Structure formats: C-alpha cells, structure tokens
C-alpha cells in the first residue's frame, strides 16, 4: 500500500505535469492557429478513443483509415 506522503507527492507531481502540458499545448495550438479549446477537445477525444479501444477493440484497419481521412480533411480545412 502506498504511504500517505508518497501519494500526496505523486498527486502534486501529477498536477504540475498537467499544468505544464496545458501551457505547452496551448502555446503550440496558438502558434499553428487552432483555438486551444478545439485542440483540447481533439486531444481528449484521442485519449478516450485509445482507452476505449483497449477494452472494445473497435479500431480495426478500415476504421483507422476513415479517421485518418477525416483528420487529413480537417488539416486541409485549417491550413
């Protein structure tokens, strides 16, 4: 079992890393011209799909190709 102090240190580290990543993601998205909220939602969508795929295995090769085409069209629209 994890001691209380170790757990608190881990939580502080997790919050710090999250804040730093949010700052870096926001700066990168502003640099390429995508609103930060859209980028965060796309990032959350990607993480959620990865987690769900670990349980359900719905990302077959045809589904992955469809997502790649949609992502490619999204990039063409913004750039």
Assembly classification: single chain
What amount of the residues lies in strands? under 5%
List low-confidence stretches: none
Summed up, the helix count is: 3
Give me the secondary-structure category.
Answer: mainly alpha
Distance between the termini: 50 Å
According to DSSP, the number of beta strands is 0
Whole-number total of structural domains: 2
pLDDT averaged over residues: 78
Q: Name the shape in a single word.
A: flat
Index terms:
79 residues; mainly alpha; 2 domains; 3 helices; 86% helix; 0% strand; flat
How would you portray this structure in words?
With 79 residues, the chain is mainly alpha-helical. It folds into 2 domains: 1-33; 36-79. Helices cover 86% and strands 0% of the residues. The protein contains 3 helices and no strands. The protein has helices at residues 4-32, 36-56, 61-78. The longest helix is centred in the first third of the chain and has 29 residues, at 4-32. It is flat and about 50 Å long. The N and C termini lie far apart (50 Å). The mean pLDDT is 78.
Topology:
Blueprint: H1 4-32, H2 36-56, H3 61-78
What's a quick, concise take on this entry?
The protein has 79 residues and is mainly α.
